[in-house]
Amino acid sequence: MKKGYEAKVCNTCIDKRRTGSLLIVKEILDTLPVKDDEWFEYHIIVSGKRIILKVNGETTVDYTEPENPERPKGRENRILSHGQIALQAHDPNSTLFYRSI
Fold it and tell me: Which of 41, 47, 93, 100 is the most buried (most CB within 10 A)?
C-alpha cells in the first residue's frame, strides 16, 4: 500500500508485528493479543483524525494524527483521507476468515 494506514492481522505469522498494531505508529511486537484458530473481534474505528484499534474489547491503539505527521521515506502518503480499505494476508501459509465487516 502506498497510501493510508495498515491495521495488522498477524497472530503467529513471519512478520514480527502482531494483530492490533497500527503500522509505523504503534507496533505490538512482544504480546500475542489473540490465538490462532480462534474467532476474535477487531474494531477499527476512524473518526476525523483519530484511529482506535480494539482487539476483543481491549484498546491496542488510540492515535490522533498530527497536522504534519512525520513518516519514513517512501511512506510519506500514509495519512488519513488517502488510501484504501484492504483485507490482506502476507503469509501464504495462513488462512483468514472475516465476518460482519
Answer: 41
